[in-house]
Design goal:
The structure holds two protein chains of two kinds.
Chain A lengths: L2 E5 L2 E4 L9 E4 L2 H10 L2 H8 L9 E8 L6 E8 L4 E2 L11 E10 H4 L3 H11 L14 H10 L1 H6 L5 H5 L16 H7 L12 E10 L2 H7 L5 E8 L2 H18 L1 H6 L8 E2 L3 H36 L4 E8 L1 E10 L2 E10 L2 E2 L18 E4 L7 E6 L3 H4 L3 E2 L9 H7 L2 H10 L3 E4 L2 H6 L8 H11 L2 E14 L1
Parallel strand pairs in A: 3-4, 18-19
Antiparallel strand pairs in A: 1-2, 2-3, 4-5, 5-13, 6-10, 7-9, 7-11, 8-9, 8-19, 12-13, 14-17, 15-16, 16-19
Helix pairs in contact in A: 4-12, 5-12, 8-10, 10-12
Chain B lengths: L1 E5 L5 E7 L2 H16 L7 E9 L2 H18 L2 E14 L2 E12 L9 E2 L5 E5 L2 E9 L1
Antiparallel strand pairs in B: 1-2, 2-8, 3-5, 4-5, 6-8, 7-8
Classes of the chains: A alpha+beta, B alpha+beta.
Chain lengths: 473, 135
């Protein structure tokens, strides 16, 4: 594969074969080498460049790694008239995303009570499969949530007005419950306010460093403040939507399946019935994911009110990192309507963009970038160059370095928990295996991912946080 | 028939083998039960019936049924009692009886099958099935 360095932290795979555009890799040399060692990431970004209607470049961001069809950390923007929609470019966990809540507490307020806090959160937010959720929902509620997202949560007493104002798309996309398969809806019952497994977590953190005081102030953040980060998605409901539409696309376009470099890239032309049904179902699943993160927000509010007597737990922002949305971008000097697929990638709109919430419009959209449970997480601001370089996007996290099986061989849960406790991090997980699988050493260096994002000007550093208490499925 | 858990950078992956396609699919259930971390009692019988256009789609659809079974019936898959696969024209029909017991501790949450690096092949008289599951 011909890879050329075209700028600092920017590499290009030239157009060849069936590629309709070149591919661009936004990474430092060490991060690029990790992608090359892994083997498939660059092949996947190259394959994405074959999609009909793709514009400018197929993109992989600094945290890129092996995904399903598309790489994780991938961005593909397609023409709304001539392009296609691909579930692989959105991911199984539709609107998997992150939110950060700020509190009026400082680290000193919670120090010494971490164990109590982690136990309380673990009691309130079910982890893994089969334990219910914080908000009880029946089948009828699911239709309401699929239609209304955060609006349904507000109407039903599970959100504050300000929560909607501080959420990407105000926590609602134009989804249609009727487009969502029945089994997906059944999987959504009693799951609103549940964490799941894998890399999803709920983490109490403290702001350890502020890099951009003015932007941090606009976000309501200051050093030593206690914040809470939630990483979860649309649970089984979103996965069922994705898998059923992949199968529907395969049956609708059988010749396409045979022609694809990777079956998981299957797509439907925008405008076809199958594509439009999927888009409506995907948006509805995104609404469900927002409701899920909102329900966990309510659980955090309950825990903080009970333990610390504070009602000041406010949403800073909520970002999706698995979604495709209609946006306007400049291509070859012209404004074009595009469907921007972000798979393990965060929207990072800069200051002045009309889709940035009013409160943050002068400084840029908050970008929330989790690390691992023993390292840092970051809060960035959408950078000025993001619109030009990456269709208004940046990385979504650290990205894994080791497989779960390798991590279980390399780390022992008990030792790891003790070691983390020594560093002031209290972890409670569904099982010891989960702790080992999610060991800090199993993840790439989040600092380097952020350094590259900042240097490129696509997402710039505002603040860094360190974990205090973490629950995992 | 046997199975092996394979490394994957972010999710979970397995290889199941058997002298026949039926036996290899039965080993898929063993791998799935192991990955879910919930297999205990045999529990109740559940019938799975699917028709799929090719081998990969058959494995995808079968895994999707196992995920749905655990989640909607709130049970922990333990093993396949029977698997019968018939080749039909350009596709396959599968009927299987799967045993699943009560969930004692929350399961590891397997949410979906994927086609990522999927393998459905006959090699030297043995069927080899590999799949990655999204968690």
């Amino acid at each position: 594969m011909d890879l050329t360095e075209v700028d600092d932290n920017v590499y290009e795979i030239a157009r060849e074969g069936d590629m309709r555009v070149p591919a661009r890799v936004f990474a430092s040399k060490p991060l690029l080498e990790k992608m090359q060692e892994e083997g498939q990431t660059l092949t996947q970004v190259r394959n994405v460049a074959t999609l009909p209607g793709i514009q400018k470049y197929s993109i992989v961001l600094p945290d890129g790694h092996l995904g399903y069809g598309f790489p994780i950390g991938g961005v593909a923007a397609v023409d709304m008239e001539k392009g296609v929609i691909s579930p692989g470019g959105i991911g199984f966990d539709i609107n998997c995303g992150v939110r950060v809540l700020k509190t009026d507490l400082t680290y000193a307020d919670v120090q010494g009570r971490e164990e109590e806090l982690v136990e309380r959160l673990y009691d309130l937010v079910p982890c893994g499969l089969g334990k219910g959720a914080y908000v009880h929902t029946d089948r009828e509620d699911i239709d309401g949530i699929l239609e209304g997202g955060m609006e349904w949560m507000l109407e039903n007493g599970h959100a504050r007005e300000a929560d909607l104002e501080h959420c990407e798309e105000n926590g609602r996309l134009p989804g249609d419950p009727d487009a969502v398969p029945e089994d997906a809806k059944k999987r959504g019952v009693d799951q609103v306010g549940s964490l799941g497994s894998g890399n999803h977590f709920l983490e109490v953190q403290r702001v350890s460093d502020v890099y951009d005081a003015a932007t941090a102030e606009a976000y309501g953040l200051h050093e030593d403040q206690v914040v809470v980060m939630v990483h979860s998605g649309s649970r089984g409901l979103g996965h069922q939507v994705c898998q059923e539409f992949i199968r529907r696309f395969e049956r609708t376009y059988p010749d396409l399946v045979d022609s694809l470099p990777d079956r998981q890239l299957v797509y439907a032309p925008i405008g076809d019935d199958a594509a439009e049904e999927y888009r409506k179902a995907m948006y509805a699943a995104a609404n469900f994911a927002w409701a899920n993160r909102q329900a966990m927000t309510q659980a955090v509010r309950e825990a903080f009110a009970d333990l610390f007597g504070t009602e000041e737990v406010d949403l800073v922002y909520d970002v999706c990192h698995n979604v495709a949305k209609e946006e306007t971008h400049e291509v070859d000097g012209e404004e074009k309507d595009l469907l921007v697929h972000r798979k393990g990638a965060t929207r990072a709109f800069p200051a002045g963009h009309p889709q940035v919430p009013e409160a943050y419009r002068d400084v840029g959209q908050p970008v929330l970038l989790p690390g691992s449970m023993g390292t840092h997480s970051y809060i960035l601001a959408g950078g000025e160059r993001s619109m030009d370089l990456t269709f208004g996007s940046t990385a979504h996290g650290a990205g894994r370095l080791k497989s779960r099986t390798q991590a279980k061989k390399d780390y022992t849960a008990g030792d790891l928990q003790q070691e983390l406790r020594g560093e002031g991090v209290y972890v409670k997980a569904r099982s010891g295996e989960t702790v080992a699988e999610e060991a800090p050493g199993a993840y790439k260096d989040v600092d380097e991912v952020v350094r590259v994002s900042d240097a490129l000007g696509i997402g710039t550093k505002v603040a860094r946080t360190r974990p205090i208490a973490n629950i995992k499925g | 028939m046997s199975y092996e858990i394979l490394p994957h950078p972010a999710d979970v992956r397995f290889r199941a083998t058997g002298p026949t396609l039926d036996a290899a699919f039965a080993a898929v259930v063993d791998a799935f039960a192991d990955l879910s971390e919930g297999a205990g009692e045999d529990g109740q019988r559940h019938e799975i019936r699917i028709e799929s256009e090719d081998g990969e789609a058959l494995l995808f659809d079968f895994l999707a049924k196992l995920v749905l079974l655990q989640e909607l019936e709130e049970c922990a898959v333990s093993r396949a009692e029977t698997v019968d696969i018939e080749e039909r024209g350009e596709g396959y029909a599968l009927v299987s009886t799967v045993r699943a017991g009560p969930i004692e501790e929350a399961l590891f949450d397997i949410k979906s099958p994927t086609y990522s690096q999927m393998v459905v092949e006959e090699r030297d008289g043995e069927w080899v099935l590999e799949a990655t599951l999204d968690i």
